[in-house]
Design a protein that fits this description.
heterodimer, A: Rossmann fold, Rossmann fold, seven-stranded mixed sheet, five-stranded mixed sheet, 11 helices, globular, B: Rossmann fold, five-stranded parallel sheet, two-stranded antiparallel ribbon, binds thiamine diphosphate, binds magnesium ion
């Protein structure tokens, strides 16, 4: 075991470097990812190390980035695109949804599209409009895309490499509020299969499902609840399309209660999908309705209101209490 | 540095009027400006720069989440704004602070955005058609084009009466020029011969990416392929910015179809207060543009025309007063209540908004008094 303590930003940086060393067809594309190292410094040092033909500081056009990545993939490259902020993915939405997502099927298996699209997402950074959104549901709703989101540096290090190794297009959502806290990364093994969800804290009273930025908050909530005698089992989905339901179903069979937490608005969301699926698959185990704790169904508000908008530990525990009250 | 043979310069960097064939069409427009009008342009540039510095200070002291300086771009902005008429519509990016001020935006309202209090701090109808800032790059060029198309459909332009015929100015950056939306705006503007002037401030950088990554030819040439005449000006020359904008705006107002100006200028500061330009650009470039400072140039010109210390001192004082006033009023800005999130998301009642607003109000009330 080789353990290093890294921030998530650095862990992804190391994961990208490892993938680029392993395969010279891996190239990075994005705005300001060259000498600046990206606005979050995730690609820091890579331009100096691999040069401008492997780390492309692109013209300022997201549709162009993803559209040309598709062509590069046809040519045998494995492009990893960085979208600067969640809210700026939409100029590329057409290329992602009408092309990238469908081209594998259209080619009837004769051509693969190993494109990774990295998207820093979510709130808690007090930024201006379009910089704190959680658009993952649009992509999980789109057939042909895999959607994954690490919650900690260890997973980030491994999941970015797994994403690059995959022959399918992958939306890789990076929780930007978790870029800086450090955590242990085991450089020798991932420990979790790709696209698997994972129990990150065992408990008996309530199952709490989260992903990306909400996992650390769910763990905090479980810690606080434990002090008051409530045992919460926390599950990190890690993969949002496909979702690995087995650990969730098993947990709900044990606890009988399920709360799903996300920063994203709750309406037609990943949380909705988990709730619906568990209603189908664990109906006889449920002792309370599945509850969602999410951002409100409004535009992400100005920074001074983000604390009112984003679900926090208290809002999670309020839902846990409501679930237990049944 | 990136000036070309085509760059229109009315005032030399030394502050002397340039008289040649290129400037000849513009000189009469400049000559028509009274001393008071010339001094007003200078006043706007000097005072906004002081405001800009104060906003940067407020950010560093934790009172703004971010600040987007326009330092160095004052002449491009003041000149073009001076050339607009009251009935014109202005679609800005996020950096045209002085244009907004000249149209009637209270600078403190600008800061409400960067303090994280609102996404849209003014009503364009109240501030003389200065539309909201647009953070998504290039998007406003399409909105501006559509607005201009509407002016044509309504017969509100091109009737030969410049005092009432309206036109549109769309500001954009060199980086934004690469966005597909901008090309589409040029297509629509040309196709419908809309009364719109695209005013591109080439400040040479899009965060850390140099303009050479966006275009291998000068950007003023790009619109010609769309059938739109383009010109390049020295954007640090407030008189060129004024006169060339005026000329082009009057042409498009008169029904001549869209126009395009590339103003060569420089982002003297960081992209925003979150940015560190020392990571990607060198001192030589900054030196060049420091020597081409738009305010120093115009001051030299005005002094040669007889403006004295009294005038310049009064502007310094006005800047200080504005800075103090902005600081005091910014710190006193109220934070909206959490219910504001649900307001105006729709213009008509929507059950999700009602349910969630009610839930949040009850939830927040449950903490009152009982907080640990
Ligand atoms: C669609 C989109 N992509 C990315 C961004 C992030 N971003 C904000 S400003 C900027 C650079 C813009 O450069 P330019 O158009 O030259 O304008 P300037 O900031 O220099 O005034 C970038 C990449 C954005 N706001 N919108
Ligand atoms: Mg620029």
């Amino acid at each position: 075991m080789t353990i290093e303590t890294l921030s998530m930003a650095k862990a992804i940086n190391n994961g990208l470097r490892a993938a680029m060393k392993a395969d010279e067809k891996v190239i990075l594309m994005g705005e300001d990812i060259g000498p600046l190292g990206g606005v979050f410094r995730v690609t820091e040092g890579l331009h100096a190390e691999f040069g401008g033909n492997r780390v492309l500081d692109t013209p300022l056009a997201e549709s162009g980035i993803v559209g040309t990545a598709i062509g590069l993939a046809m040519r045998g490259y494995r492009p990893v695109c960085e979208i600067q902020f969640d809210g700026f993915i939409f100029p590329a939405f057409d290329q992602i949804v009408t092309q990238l997502a469908k081209l594998t099927a259209r080619h009837q298996g004769h051509q693969t599209f190993p494109v990774v699209i990295r998207v820093p997402f979510g709130g808690h950074i007090g930024a201006v409009e379009h910089h704190q959104e959680s658009p993952e549901a649009y992509f999980a709703h789109t057939a042909g895309l895999r959607v994954i989101s690490p919650s900690n540096p260890h997973d980030a290090y491994w999941m970015i490499q797994e994403a690059i190794a995959s022959n399918d297009p992958i939306m890789f959502f990076e929780p930007k509020s978790r870029y800086w806290p450090k955590g242990e990364v085991d450089l020798s093994a991932s420990g979790s299969p790709t696209y698997s969800s994972r129990v990150v804290r065992e408990g008996t009273g309530v199952t709490l499902v989260a992903y990306g930025p909400m996992v650390s908050m769910a763990l905090q909530a479980a810690e606080l609840a434990a002090e008051e005698g409530t045992s919460i089992e926390v599950i990190d989905l890690r993969s949002l399309s496909p979702i690995d339901y087995a650990p969730v179903v098993a947990s709900v069979q044990k606890t009988g209660r399920l709360v799903v937490a996300s920063e994203a608005p709750g309406n037609v969301s990943i949380a909705s999908e988990v709730a619906a699926t568990l209603a189908e698959r664990a109906f006889y185990s449920l002792e309370a309705p599945v509850l969602r704790v999410s951002g409100f169904d409004t535009p992400f508000p100005p920074a001074k209101l983000e604390a009112n908008y984003l679900p926090d530990v208290d809002r999670i525990l309020e839902a846990v209490d409501r679930s237990l009250a049944y | 540095m990136s000036y070309t043979d085509a760059t229109i310069q009315v005032l030399s960097p030394e502050g002397v009027i340039v008289e040649n064939d290129t400037t000849a069409p513009y000189l009469p427009l400049v000559e028509k400006l009274s001393d008071a009008e010339l001094q007003e342009m200078h006043r706007q540039m000097v005072v906004i720069r002081r405001f800009d510095i104060e906003a940067g200070n407020l950010q560093r002291q934790g009172h703004l989440g971010i600040w987007i300086p326009s330092l160095g771009q004052e002449a491009a902005q003041v000149g073009s704004a001076t050339a607009s008429r009251p009935q014109d519509h202005i679609f800005p990016t996020y950096r045209e602070h002085v244009v907004g001020r000249m149209r009637g935006v209270d600078p403190v309202d600008t800061l409400r955005i960067w303090r994280g209090l609102t996404h849209g701090a003014w009503d364009p109808k109240v501030v003389n058609n200065f539309h909201l800032y647009a953070v998504v790059l290039g998007t406003q060029t399409l909105h501006a084009t559509g607005y201009a198309m509407g002016l044509t459909f309504d017969g509100a332009t091109g009737t030969g009466t410049p005092d009432t015929d309206a036109a549109v100015i769309a500001y954009l950056g060199d980086g934004a020029s690469s966005q597909g939306d901008v090309s589409e705006a040029l297509v629509f503007a040309a196709s419908y011969q809309a009364p719109i002037l695209f005013f591109l401030q080439n400040n040479h950088w899009a965060i850390s990416v140099p303009v050479t990554r966006q275009s291998r030819t000068p950007l003023y040439l790009r619109p010609s392929g769309f059938g739109i005449p383009g010109v390049q000006i020295d954007g640090n020359d407030v008189l060129a910015s004024y006169a060339v904008t005026r000329e082009n705006l009057e042409e498009t107002r008169a029904g001549g179809g869209p126009r395009f100006i590339e103003a060569l200028t420089y982002r003297m500061g960081a992209h925003t207060t979150s940015d560190d330009p020392t990571k990607y650009r060198d001192d030589a470039e900054l030196d060049f543009w420091t020597r081409h400072d738009p305010i120093a140039r115009f001051e030299a010109f005005l002094r040669a025309k007889g403006a004295g210390d009294d005038f310049f001192d009064s502007l310094t004082q006005e800047g200080e007063d504005l800075a103090a006033d902005v600081r005091a009023r910014t710190l006193a800005l109220p934070v909206p209540s959490s219910s504001a999130m649900f307001e105006h998301v729709y213009s008509e009642a929507h059950t999700l908004m009602q349910e969630q607003a009610a839930w949040l109000a009850a939830y927040e009330a449950s903490f009152e008094g009982g907080a640990a």
